[in-house]
Structures are given as structure tokens and as C-alpha cells.
Amino acid sequence: MTGTGPAQAATAGSTAPVVVIGPMGAGKSSVGKRVAKALGVSFTDTDRAIVREHGPIPGIFADRGEAAFRELEAEAVRDAVTRGGVVAVGGGAVTHAATREAMAGARIVLLTVSPEAVADRIAGSDRPLLADGGIDAWQTILDARAATYAELAHATFDTSRRPMSHVVGEVVAWVRGSTPPDPRTSAGTSTPADTRTSTGTSTPTDTSPGAGRRTTTGGTP
Q: Is 110 helix (H, G, I), strand (E, B) or coil?
């Protein structure tokens, strides 16, 4: 596991929400749900919330377009973050300014995955943006979003070929020792004062400028 991101000073019992971001197939929903259970807090999958309210995501893309979907997604993320707990968002949620703003004050966890590991996870997917391109489309989309993911993330965990229990345990440990960012600063606008990289199974890198789903059907592109 490699971890990078702005550090959070240790504070026990923080109730600030945790938002899980990352590319399609990184395991955001699966990991997020288990992290929430371990922490004893609620879990919201914003894709599922959208489906409950508005119907299947591929249908929304086909009938109303991506821009309309992103507006619905921003609303779902805002509502979920307000309720608190752990929130897993779609891979493209970070591309919408209102959604990024809704994350301000949350602890943002980025899950990454290699193309080799994700290939089986997205096989047979009906995600609209992967309909024609498969893994090549996945890589192109990731390349376009990677900088935004990195800017927003407070901690990063790789899910490639690793037992989910290990990833969940590392995320839980990080959350329990983290302090939420200042909500007065929009999510992803801070610059780390120091950046270190650790490899193996150590905890993610922490830097501090001050104190402080896997889904193969109907998932968000």
C-alpha cells in the first residue's frame, strides 16, 4: 500500500464524515461499507441513492445526459455528507464543482487500483462511459481525473490484488487517527507542506499545513 496526502493530527472520536473517492472498479462501495461497519457509523452509496430516487444510472445518461446526472449526483453527495458517516461516491463525482464543494470538511479517502487488477472487475459492466472502450476507456478516464483525485485526497490506499480486509483495516486505522480539514477551505484546495511515500503495509503518509465499489452493474462512470 502506498499512502500520500495532507496529514491530519490525531484526534479521537471525530464525527466528520469520510468520503471515499477513486476510479471505477477501485472498490469504493465495498470498502466504504465495511469501514462504516467497523467504525459503527452509517454508510451511504450515492449511486444507489440516485437509483432509488431517479432510476438506473445508464438510463439517466441516455435520457438526460451526463451534465444532468452530475447535478443529481451533487445533490446526493451533499445530502449524504450532511448526514455523516462514510460516503462512497461515483468515480466521476469529483469532476463537478458543486460536488467537490460538498466534500469540504470531510476526510477524503482515495482508493486506487491498477489497470491489470481492475480489468476483471469492470468486465461486463454497463457503466455508460465504458460501453464502447472497456479497459482503454477506463484508463483514459482515469488519466483525465487523476490530478483531481490526488488534489482532493487526504489519504490514499491501493486495492490492487490485496485482501479487502487489509485495506479496510488500514482505512479504519487512518480515520481513527485523523483530524478533519478546515471546512472553511474548499475540498482539495490545500497544498501539502510535506509529501512522503511509504510502501508495503504501513499507514498512509501524513503531511500537515496546520492543525487541523466494486460495482459492475449500473455504477457511475
A: strand
